[in-house]
Amino acid sequence: MSLNAHRRADLALGGITGGAAFIILLVLALIAWDVLSNGLSQLSWEFISAAPREGMTEGGIFPAIFGTVALVLLMTVAVVPVGVITAVYLYEYARQDGLFARLIRGAVYNLAGVPSIVFGLFGLGFFIQFIGGRMDAFWYPGEVVWGQPAILWASLTLAVLTLPVVIVATEEALRTVPREHREAALALGSTRFEALVRIILPQALPGILTGAILAVARGAGETAPILFTGAAYFLPYLPTHPNDQFMNLGYHVYVLATQSPDIEATKPILYGTVLVLLLVTALLNVAAMVLRSRLRAA
Amino acid sequence: MDELPPDAGRDVTRTGRITADPARLEARRVRRRRMDLLAKAVITVIAFVAIAAVALIFLFVAREALPLVFGQFRDEVTLGSMILPQAWREGAGAIFSWQPVSTVPKYSLAPLVVGTLKVTVIALVFAVPLAVGAAVFSAEFASRRTREIIKPAIEMLAGVPSVVLGFFALIVLASLLQNLFGFTYRLNGIVAGIALGLALIPVVYTVSEDALIAVPRSYREASLALGASRARTAWSVIVPAAAPGIFAAVVLGFGRAMGETMIVLMASGNAAVLSLDPTSSVRTIPATIAAEMGEVVVGGAHWSVLFLLGTLLFLVTLTFNTLGARYVARMRRKMGERS
User: Fold this and answer.
1) Fewer Cβ within 10 Å of end Cβ, chain B: N or C?
2) How far apart are CA B278 and CA B282, in angstroms?
3) Domain presence at residue B91
4) Residues B329, B201: one domain?
């Protein structure tokens, strides 16, 4: 083959594959542009601080923002300790090729692949019907207090969904702590637990934080798992009790987009809500990305 | 030995002093050891949560489907009537029909299964060439700087909530495609498939790119040294070597596509018609669960059918994910051995 033919072949394949990459970036830019150009004019202090009015065609989305934040906070409280401890077990305690460790790794991998709607069914069948139902039978016979959709059940469902995110990120963080630090701590007479708490975890903290942020970003964007575990389209009050229902940004987008009697009238609010949701998840993802790349560089 | 600080014997490791009462020191050592053992036990028990979660998800989703399997709703629905075509009226032909909310509820799975597969295939046809192409580009042709733009950008796409992709498909893409191609139904299999494809691109891209990068440098160098062009090297050496990894990416994408809910729920039109026409409105299994679970009687036949669909979905995606993982592992082993 002559050099010219070489160059032509390189240009052709490079051009085709580069075109594919370009199309993907173009679509991403199109989505960003569409949401920004239609949503930006909606953003105002009133929009993020007021409740909806006039059948969701006016006012703001504060209850949805509040509900989303409360939801992911509860989720974080549940998922971070369990996720971090599981990763600590896998990396610091388990025999790497041991049966139990292999089982846990398999479970974490599969958990990450379970469809989000199945988590919703699980939340309904396990948390609401089973746990909530038992709690009612025990404490409030004849009443329905816990055996119904609620922010607590939705956040626990999301905690199960985001567990793999925290475990994977924490394990990665533990891997960056030099072995010598563990050995030095043990050689100085500390127990394994003391070495873990005083030496290893403080160093892994940025990585653990990355995992928590990623989990929050994921949890804030999920809609399917909360459809029937606690999200409500409209509530006149804010959730203040764990068995309250809640409004949610993702669910708000879904309902506004699909069940509005007059889509043109709700469109401005819809775009504003999408923009807020996209900004929240994108900022969280970027924060995690930056934190992680700093970690790698250090 | 005459002046001991007040915290002696309590904080030995921190201050390095070991001049306290031996009895207290011994007690302290026992306490620290107990704490260590207790911590290990607690950590081991909590590590079990991940395994328990997967088991409980299967058990509690399948549990609600059991009454159906054991024929508790025999008058309304059986496994047979879900699979085989049914004649719903005297003298009418046997058909597959999904109409759970009607005077005679009809629970044929065929329209949902075909709908799910149809949207999944359209999504893969759209996403795989783009994602694998982009992966080949960023692994083989792109400069370092270009790659550092493409990779995070596609990872950002993975962070876009699926409800936002569904919204985009519903409000923007559907009108755009209808104007371009004049679809009879504004929301249809193609709109949902393309939107779903957008959600698959990051998965397929990331796994494919990892596979391409994992091909040992010696392959590339040998091919270039033999006088092959970069394109020839990529096409005839690198891509074939990474083929199991790229195949794994497609399999993982397939599993992801089957289970995706919000995008198809919003963009597919949701009519449960049995048809292979990609421009007709479709209803998938996850969208059916999402749309109907809100209005069913707890513990009734319809409830049970929806949980059965969930169990099916769980098992199918589990199979595809396991297959995908196996190919990724095989790829790693292969590359590890030869490099």
Assistant:
1) N
2) 8
3) no
4) yes
Contact A273, A64 (CB under 8 A): yes
CA dist B268 and B260 (Å) reads 12
CATH number at residue B259: 1.10.3720.10
Q: What is the pLDDT of residue B77?
A: 80
Q: Are residues B37 and B120 in the same domain?
A: no
Do residues B19 and B162 both lie within one domain? Answer: no
Q: Which CATH class is domain A47-297?
A: mainly alpha
Whether residue B26 is found in the same domain as residue B167 = no
Q: Which domain holds residue B320?
A: 106-338
Domain coordinates of chain A in residue numbers? 1-42, 47-297
**Residues B107, B98: Cα–Cα separation, whole Å:** 5
- B271 in any annotated domain: yes
Chain B interface includes A82 (CB < 8 A) = yes
How many separate domains does chain B show?
Answer: 2
Asked if residue B56 is part of any domain, the answer here is: no
What pLDDT, on a 0 to 100 scale, did the predictor assign at position A281?
A: 94
A283 interfacial to chain B (CB closer than 8 Å): no
Contacts of B32 (CB under 8 A, 6+ apart): A191, A194
> Which chain A residue's Cα is nearest to B157?
A28
Judgement on whether residues B228 and B313 belong to the same structural domain of the protein? yes
pLDDT digits (tens, 9 = 90+) for A100-128: 999 999 999 999 999 999 999 999 999 99
Q: Are residues B225 and B297 in the same domain?
A: yes
User: How does residue B2 score in pLDDT terms, banded at 50, 70 and 90?
Assistant: very low
Under 8 Å between Cβ of A60 and A49: yes
Q: Is B240 on the interface with A (CB under 8 A)?
A: no
Over residues A19-44, the pLDDT tens digits come to: 999 999 999 999 999 999 999 998 88
pLDDT for the residue A213:
95
Strands (DSSP E) contained in B17-100 are 98-99
Contacts of B236 in chain A (CB under 8 A): none
Residues B43, B119 within the same domain: no
What is the distance between the terminal CA atoms of chain A, rounded to a whole angstrom? 47
Confidence bin at B20 (pLDDT 50/70/90)? low
CB pair distance less than 8 Å for B61 and A118: yes
Give the count of Cβ contacts less than 8 A between chain A and B: 280
- Do B125 and B18 lie in one domain? The reply is no
Which residue of A5, A116, A251 is in closest CB contact with B261?
A116
Residues of chain B positioned with their CB less than 8 A from the CB of A34: 168, 172
- B270 pLDDT tier (thresholds 50, 70, 90): confident
Who contacts B35 (Cβ-Cβ below 8 Å, separation ≥6)?
A191, A193
For residue range B93-109, list pLDDT tens digits in order: 777 888 887 777 888 88
**B165 vs A contacts (CB less than 8 Å):** 31
Q: What is the percentage of chain A residues whose pLDDT exceeds 70? A: 98
Nearest residue to A108 (alpha-carbon basis) of B54, B323, B252, B203: B54
